[in-house]
Amino acid sequence: QARLVQSGAEVKKPGASVKVSCQASGYTFTGYYIHWVRQAPGQGLEWVGGISPNGGLINYGERFQGRVTLTRDSSITTAYMEVNNLKSDDTAIYYCATERQNWFDPWGQGTLVTVSS
Amino acid sequence: EIVLTQSPATLSLSPGERVILSCRATQNVGTFLAWYQHKAGQAPRLLISAAVNRASGIPARFSGSGSGTDFTLTINSLEPEDSAVYYCQQRSGWPPLYSFGQGTKLEIK
């Protein structure tokens, strides 16, 4: 069945960058958007952005425009999210998810990104 | 930007009871609304899509209703494993933008 597997936890210093990967299997990777959602400690879910099946259309949540870059590589069925100029309040669990007709299913297991000096 | 407001924020109920969770949008989203269940340490799980459609494998005691700006998720015959945070999510506009409600934390005593 469809499955997304994300890269492992990261610890970064303020001002650094982080790149999280999300490898898909069990479905046609080139047929669906991939989205990223984060959950900061004690907070709810927040949409980061989404990338179209061919990578030609990328949308970002207002807070993430200019600091987050989404890409994907169909040859290895993997999507990536890079966050630049990390701040302490970027500490969160980042999830990738496949969009199926406007909804997110399935989701990756989540990647904890910790930003600390 | 469409904002989703969920109520109540938290609640505690007993097994076998029925609960109705609310999600209200600041603008008409039609039926572009989903519900997710999120347990600590796990990935969120899609429960309901297009406001009323149960996702694959979701028990029949979960049901969704509503359209426009007012939506509800009903869970009948609560079970202990229903303890989780429940989120609504909408999609709107072009290019499409997405947002989540702030969540309702449900505890089964």
Feature tags:
heterodimer, A: 117 residues, mainly beta, 7-stranded mixed beta sheet, 4-stranded antiparallel beta sheet, 11 strands, B: 109 residues, 0% helix, globular
Distance between the termini of chain A: 40 Å
Give the overall form of chain B.
globular
Give me the Rg of chain A, rounded. 13 Å
DSSP summary: helix tally of chain A: 0
* Overall number of strands of chain B: 11
The quaternary structure here is heterodimer
Strand content of chain B: over 45%
Level of helix content of chain A?
A: under 10%
Calculate the mean pLDDT score of chain A and round it: 96
Number of strands of chain A: 11
- Which geometry of chain A do the CA atoms define? globular
Beta content of chain A comes to over 45%
Structural account:
The complex is a heterodimer of chains A (117) and B (109). Chain A is mainly β. Chain A is built from no helices and eleven strands. In chain A, the strands form two sheets. In chain A, strands 2, 4, 5, 6, 9, 10 and 11 form a seven-stranded mixed β-sheet that branches. In chain A, a hairpin with a 4-residue loop joins strand 7 (68-73) and strand 8 (78-83). Chain A starts with a strand and ends with a strand. The model of chain A has no long low-confidence stretch (mean pLDDT 96). Chain B is mainly β and 109 residues long. Helix content of chain B is 0%, strand content 53%. Chain B has strands at residues 4-7, 10-13, 19-25, 33-38, 45-49, 53-54, 62-67, 70-75, 84-92, 97-100, 104-108. In chain B, strands 2, 4, 5, 6, 9, 10 and 11 form a seven-stranded mixed β-sheet that branches. A four-stranded antiparallel β-sheet of chain B has the order 1-3-8-7, with no helix packed on it. The chains are: A mainly beta (117), B mainly beta (109). The A-B interface holds A 35, 37, 44-47, 50, 57, 59, 61-62, 95, 97, 101-110 and B 1, 32, 34, 36, 38, 43-46, 49-50, 55, 85, 87, 89, 91, 95-103.
